[in-house]
């Protein structure tokens, strides 16, 4: 009774094995393998690497405890899981610990983009403080201006790097939205600043209608959403037109007076890599922007809506409360 209660409340899957048959299991084991008492352990556990367990159960080794890690197929959950497996030979007990999540996080850290992004942060920090030092010591106004330009672009670069790291994590499903106080005006200025080149080339006037000072949420998510919507609005606008960015406590919207999106294209624009034929002709792109917007909105529990009329313009609205 005592033992059963303890075993039903541990994180490990526990199987008692007689011969090769399962004679007792705890609650956690049931979660992954269902009612499996009486089943043959070798039918039940489909391992990726195979015969380590066979050796262990069949006396292949003299150790009391055989321990290894392997991918195991869970019939109940219908998928592969990464387990640490321990077999206590003297008592015929098999203990499995699900390490899937840990392995996933480890793999993410090992992901190339995340790794590169991480590695770039240090040298950029060093360059940035060196430039600040130079600026402080410099009296020549024209040189200070050059250094300020360098500094501004270092900041840009580090935002891009942070972006790559977070987006990769979001794509791998391991990004958890933060709860931060967001200075709305500052955030909009940063985004407009990032897109300065594009905005100036097309001589677009960006009107900021900011009706809230601060929002609570994840800075990176909101900035990335705005950056993608604003860059689209500018890319798919005609020269010399305007784009309106509106932010209230309930929503963010970006409105343009550009080519618009034909009704029949609307359902597809959030798909990865999808670009409308007009889009392809008008500007360069990857077709990932809106997929990222959608993905991050889901993460943050935002709702995205789009209204558009061909040749008249487009308005994307992101509601903060679904
Ligand atoms: N503001 C907009 N006006 C017109 N078309 C747009 C707008 N925003 C997005 N689109 C259309 O949706 C497509 C997908 O957008 P996106 O995922 O950001 O990819 P990209 O910008 O790389 O083309 C674009 O190719 C374009 O055809
Ligand atoms: Mg885009």
From TrEMBL:
GO CC list: plasma membrane
Keywords, ordered alphabetically: Kinase, Phosphoprotein, Transferase, Two-component regulatory system
Ranges in a coiled coil: none
EC numbers: 2.7.13.3
Pfam family, one: HATPase_c
GO molecular-function terms, A-Z: phosphoprotein phosphatase activity; phosphorelay sensor kinase activity
InterPro entries: BphY/WalK/GraS-like, HATPase_C_sf, HATPase_dom, His_kinase_dom, HisK_dim/P_dom, HisK_dim/P_sf, Sig_transdc_His_kin-like_C
Name of this chain's protein: histidine kinase
Catalytic activity entry: ATP + protein L-histidine = ADP + protein N-phospho-L-histidine
Domain Histidine kinase: 115-322
CDD domains cross-referenced by the UniProt entry: HATPase, HisKA
